[in-house]
Amino acid sequence: MKIGFLGFGEVSSTLSAGLLSKGADVSTCVEGRSLKTKGLAKEIELNLCKSNRELAESSDILISAVTPFQAVEVAKEIGKYSKGIYIDINNISPSRAKEALSYIENGKTADASIIGSVRKNGLNVNILVSGPYAKQFAELNQYGMNINIIGNEIGQASAIKLLRSSFTKGISALLFETLYSAYKMGIDGEVLKYIAETEGEGFRESAVSRIISSAVHSKRKAEEMEEVMELISKSSDAKMSRATSEFFKQLYNEINGIEKRPENYKEIFELINKKNRKN
Amino acid sequence: MKIGFLGFGEVSSTLSAGLLSKGADVSTCVEGRSLKTKGLAKEIELNLCKSNRELAESSDILISAVTPFQAVEVAKEIGKYSKGIYIDINNISPSRAKEALSYIENGKTADASIIGSVRKNGLNVNILVSGPYAKQFAELNQYGMNINIIGNEIGQASAIKLLRSSFTKGISALLFETLYSAYKMGIDGEVLKYIAETEGEGFRESAVSRIISSAVHSKRKAEEMEEVMELISKSSDAKMSRATSEFFKQLYNEINGIEKRPENYKEIFELINKKNRKN
Fold first, then answer.
1. Crossing angle of helices A71-78 and A94-101, rounded to 10°
2. CATH 1.10.1040.10 residue ranges in chain B?
3. Fold of A2-153
4. Pick from B170, B194, B200: CB nearest A115
5. Nearest-CA residue of chain B relative to A203?
6. Which residues of A touch B207 (CB under 8 A)?
7. Chain B residues touching residue A259 (CB < 8 angstroms)
8. CB atoms < 10 A from the CB of B219, how many?
């Protein structure tokens, strides 16, 4: 069974190195990529194709692991050449996954999502898959992969990842808003402490990393929440995800001085951060 | 030291029984109350005053534990007779606590909040206190109480309780909205499972009880969120608490058929409930 990777970033290089070590036949194409990427591909010693078209024509399972912005484009480009099964493993919304996979002319497709960190978990990282060819993709578990079939519909695997991450972002926004109020009243430490008592072990640590990550990644989080809202709006008013989305937009603007207000979230971020380093 | 309780509901009866068992001198007034309440007071064998005025005049520490609606009224009524320290332990917002305590003419006041369940924890339940006479109230710890001083300002103790419970309600709303979308896509079980993986042990169980409690207590939660919004609006846009408040209002309307829509949260409540009983 020939396995091909479209794109050769962290996901592709980690998974292909793992698959090769288990004796799988793995190819990619690094034409036009940086010297560093080419060097990495040579080091791992996987087969190199001259073009994505050649890769698509020769793979039994072709895995698209490009950047979110390239996911649709690359599917469009090689859609008519893909002779085997085409798996979109990119971090995109269900509707974008459907769009990308609609270009695969033989219809042998599935939508996959990585849950957790490829860097930390390597070949064993949890991968969810849904769609007509989910089962065939899961055959790669024979090489030590950890692929879990969710259902038959394209978009389900992407939706699980998106909803999970939207819930997490919502908690961060809630926490930020709550602790900011608490801080203004001089009771931020106590509120965090008593929330931690209800929410259980480890909440305090994760709360701090959530506050930091909210501030640092506010732009990306605001963008991702736009996709979530599109998804959640299909079934409800999406009140909470809309508020989360707006919260991150405002946080980004405030941190970057675009929106200046006396209530500047920046100070709470800095203060909570400092305080918790001490404790 | 004479301790008096204004009101004789669960909080007063539990705490006074505990205090009496430790040898404290405890009084209340049950004039005009039900036979059941009078019977309970006799059973516990605490001192009975003829009126709240007499109770206020004879207590060194007077604890107001009435219903939230009576908190201001009772303070107004006995404000000029309270000769000792007056503690408001009612479940009210910081601004209502300030209002109530403003009627205590000698100014010997503090604002207290019960964190957790009096029924479960008895005399040892965690009580937060803030205000000028917080320290004097905490002297009751000699009788086995668990009173923790937060600060010198009236309202801080109430604010901690309110912010903590608003955060918890926000999580419930987020969870409900997220799982409803997931349910519509046939992936509610999976989304709950993968959120639980990030959120840690016990999340699944607490998620289910949060969904049930959201639906059952939607009206009360919507009302409580109004008070939270008032508090949080002082320091930010209160985007998340506003969304939480609106979420519970809508949930209440939908569950009670006031607002009929094809997207009825009732079904997700029933389904998740059923599913989780099986698993």
1. 20
2. 162-278
3. Rossmann fold (3.40.50)
4. B194
5. B199
6. none
7. none
8. 15
Which among B191, B235, B242 has CB closest to A160? B191
Interface contact flag, A250 B243, Cβ < 8 Å: no
The shortest C-alpha distance from B125 to chain A (Å) reads 13
Structure tokens at B98: 């300030």
Q: Are B6 and B65 in contact (CB under 8 A)?
A: yes
Looking up tokens 């090689």, which residue turns up? A78
Return the structure tokens found at B99.
């209002």
Answer whether A194 sits within 8 Å of B115, measured CB to CB: yes
Q: Do B170 and A168 touch (CB under 8 A)?
A: no
**Please, are residues B171 and B226 in contact by the beta-carbon 8 Å criterion?**
no
Q: What is the pTM of this model?
A: 0.83
Q: Which residues of A98-126 are buried (b: 16+ CB within 10 A; e: fewer)?
A: bbbbebbeeebbbbbbbbeebeebebebb
Tens digit of pLDDT at every position of chain A (279 positions): 999 999 999 999 999 999 999 999 999 999 999 999 999 999 999 999 999 999 999 999 999 999 888 999 999 999 999 999 999 999 999 999 999 999 999 999 999 999 989 999 999 999 999 999 999 999 999 999 999 999 999 999 999 999 999 999 999 999 989 988 898 888 988 998 888 887 876 788 788 788 878 878 888 888 889 888 889 998 888 999 999 999 999 888 877 766 554 444 555 555 555 554 444
What dotted CATH number matches B162-278?
Answer: 1.10.1040.10
Interface mutation vs chain B, best among A240, A244, A250, A268, most B CBs within 10 Å: A240
- CA within 13 Å, CB half, B66: 23
Q: Which residue intervals of chain B bear CATH 3.40.50.720?
A: 2-154
Nearest residue, CB atoms, B163 vs list A156, A167, A182: A182
Instruction: List CB contacts (< 8 A) between B171 and chain A.
Output: 171, 174
How far apart are alpha carbons A174 and A197 in whole angstroms? Answer: 17
Candidate from B184, B236, B241 with C-beta closest to A263: B236
CATH value of B2-154 in 3.40.50.300, 1.10.10.10, 3.50.50.60, 3.40.50.720: 3.40.50.720
Our CA-based measurement puts residue A244 at a distance from the nearest CA of chain B, in whole angstroms, of 7
ipTM above 0.95, yes or no: no
Task: Kindly give the residue spans of alpha helices, DSSP state H, lying in A61-110.
Answer: 71-78, 94-101
Residues of chain A with CATH 1.10.1040.10: 159-278
Contact between chains at B239 and A232 (C-beta distance less than 8 A): no
Fold of A159-278: N-(1-d-carboxylethyl)-l-norvaline Dehydrogenase; domain 2 (1.10.1040)
H-helix or E-strand containing A89? none
A195: chain B residues, CB-CB within 8 Å: 164, 167-168
> Shortest Cα distance from B244 to chain A (angstroms)?
7
Mean pLDDT for back-to-back runs of 10 residues, chain B (279 residues)? 96 97 97 93 94 97 94 97 97 94 98 94 96 98 97 95 93 91 87 85 79 82 88 89 93 72 52 50
